[in-house]
Structure to design on (570 residues):
């Protein structure tokens, strides 16, 4: 027999009693029975019992559908659940009393005008009612536990839990160990790997691209907003912390720093942009007369096989009056129509002795401050001139670093996304994702961890504090401080691994930096005004480590090593 979900509500008991009294009137008290009404139920015919059962089924199905459609964790849901459980308990008690009345009628069927067939029908009806009520009570209790624990519970599990309660006479979870075991299995967890960096593919450019320059402020003087450098390596420093209220205030701390060599840039051009509803549009550009070979190499794929004639015709404009007039007309056009002015600058790659590359890195740097005419004049006066790094950044300033990370090649899901390895006995490999999705939709979701390219991604690091700016040929280039007067250069003993010696200007920034050694990185001024105490703190360096970065360096200088070992051994 299919399970018929039926609940007899408590309010039907009074109507059932009124039906029996109106049908039979006052009945004699049954022997060994607690209610004459239940004996009257025995006198009902089989059809009348089915009629009452049908009415109860309709009533209960309406109530049950209302209970199922009610959202969980609501007041109405809790109220209906408690009401249904109470109704089931009441009906179970009435069924027990009815069975007692039937057992009384079996002793003397003729007294009640019944035969064995009619008594058998009543037995079947009470048995069916008992099964239905018990099943529904299990279902409702399972739904109640589901709302408490957050997952479905089988009716058999509900019975076992009730038996456990009866045996312990205590809470359902008796001990703290049981509570901890209950929390081990979780049905949700934070995903592995961020989706904010999709797609994880190789960068289309080797040099970091500035996609947003700082907001322009016409009240400030004209200035450049970005620079280009080359990552040399890392070391560590000791400094005094200035943070009132902190436990480190007026104490020394050791921090890692990165050295970025920044030879002066050369300005070779000027470009203007106009704002349109679809973004910026290039207005025109003006180039300098003399461009070095290292920047002209950037316009050729194979410099040796080319005729090396790039910008030769453009340079002739500066030799004629008509050409000079045309250039001045282009500059006036910039002043009249331009919205944004940027200079075209390139690095002096020939000064980087550790790099075998001969092509200079070329980029546009936005000019902020002043009017448009001031920006054009400011950029034009720097044609074919060098711009040092201290003209763009200052000590204790917060800057952003844009670059391309170190490439790792093709990697699996465990390395690429950090997912959990499968158990040791897993068939056909364990460094995998066991399930990559359902059958339908018939495709793999983009959120599923997959193997592929790892590293060589374009990234932007915000708020890197400048600890020191070193100038070539000056005392600031050395690693001396007010507390450590040892004469030593910023380059550690033996040079920076895989880079060499830092001979030009450099920046010392806090922490690490994207990319491997020798990787070109773009330095940009912070997009927002820095107001935090950490950003405004003045850095007081006490010690800069220059020991060898191969192995465990013991000595800061070569002289110190010679004094310790002697000249022959050192």
């Amino acid at each position: 027999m299919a399970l018929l979900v039926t609940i007899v509500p408590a309010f039907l008991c009074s109507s059932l009693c009124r039906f029996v009294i109106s049908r039979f009137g006052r009945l004699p008290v049954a022997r060994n029975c607690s209610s004459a009404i239940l004996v009257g139920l025995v006198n009902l015919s089989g059809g009348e019992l089915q009629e009452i059962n049908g009415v109860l089924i309709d009533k209960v199905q309406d109530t049950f559908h209302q209970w199922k459609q009610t959202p969980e964790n609501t007041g109405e849901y809790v109220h209906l659940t408690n009401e249904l459980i109470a109704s089931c308990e009441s009906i179970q008690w009435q069924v027990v009393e009815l069975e007692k009345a039937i057992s009384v009628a079996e002793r003397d069927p003729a007294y009640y005008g019944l035969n064995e067939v009619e008594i058998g029908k009543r037995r079947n009806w009470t048995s069916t009612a008992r099964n239905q009520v018990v099943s529904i009570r299990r279902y409702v209790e399972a739904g109640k536990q589901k709302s408490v624990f957050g997952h479905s519970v089988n009716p058999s599990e509900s019975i076992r839990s009730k038996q456990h309660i009866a045996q312990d006479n205590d809470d359902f979870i008796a001990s703290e160990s049981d509570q901890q075991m209950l929390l081990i299995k979780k049905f949700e967890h934070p995903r592995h790997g961020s989706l904010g960096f999709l797609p994880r593919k190789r960068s289309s450019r080797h040099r970091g691209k500035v996609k947003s320059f700082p907001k322009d402020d016409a009240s400030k003087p004209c200035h450049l907003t970005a620079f280009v450098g080359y990552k040399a390596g890392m070391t560590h420093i000791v400094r005094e912390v200035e943070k009132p209220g902190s436990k480190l205030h007026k104490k020394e701390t050791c921090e890692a720093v990165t050295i970025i060599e920044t030879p002066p840039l050369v300005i070779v051009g000027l470009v203007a942009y106009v704002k349109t509803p679809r973004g910026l549009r290039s207005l025109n550009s003006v180039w300098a007369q003399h461009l070095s070979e290292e920047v002209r190499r950037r316009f050729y794929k194979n410099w040796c096989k080319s005729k090396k004639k790039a910008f030769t015709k453009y340079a002739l404009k500066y030799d004629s009056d008509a050409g000079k007039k045309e250039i001045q007309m282009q500059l006036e056009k910039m002043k009249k129509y331009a919205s944004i002015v940027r200079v075209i600058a390139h690095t002096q790659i020939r000064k980087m002795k550790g790099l075998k590359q001969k092509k200079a890195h070329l980029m546009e740097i936005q000019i902020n401050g002043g009017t448009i005419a001031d920006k054009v004049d400011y950029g034009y006066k720097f044609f074919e001139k060098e711009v040092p790094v201290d003209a763009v950044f200052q000590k204790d300033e917060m800057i952003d670093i844009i670059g391309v990370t170190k490439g790792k090649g093709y990697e699996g899901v465990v390395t690429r996304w950090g997912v959990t390895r499968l158990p040791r006995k897993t068939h056909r490999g364990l460094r995998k994702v066991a399930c990559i999705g359902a059958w339908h939709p018939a495709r793999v979701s983009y959120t599923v961890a997959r193997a592929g390219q790892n590293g060589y991604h374009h990234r932007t690091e915000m708020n890197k504090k400048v600890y020191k700016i070193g100038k070539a040929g000056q005392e600031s280039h050395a690693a001396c401080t007010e507390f450590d007067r040892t004469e030593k250069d910023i380059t550690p003993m033996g040079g920076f691994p895989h880079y060499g010696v830092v001979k030009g200007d450099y920046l010392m920034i806090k922490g690490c930096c994207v990319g491997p050694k020798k990787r070109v990185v773009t330095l940009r001024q912070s997009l927002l005004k820095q107001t935090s105490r950490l950003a405004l703190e003045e850095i007081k360096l006490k010690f800069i480590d220059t020991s060898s970065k191969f192995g465990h360096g013991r000595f800061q200088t070569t002289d110190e090593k010679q004094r310790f070992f002697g000249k022959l051994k050192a």
Q: What stands out?
A: Residues 12-173 form one domain. The two ends are 97 Å apart (CA to CA). The chain is about 35% helix and 20% strand.
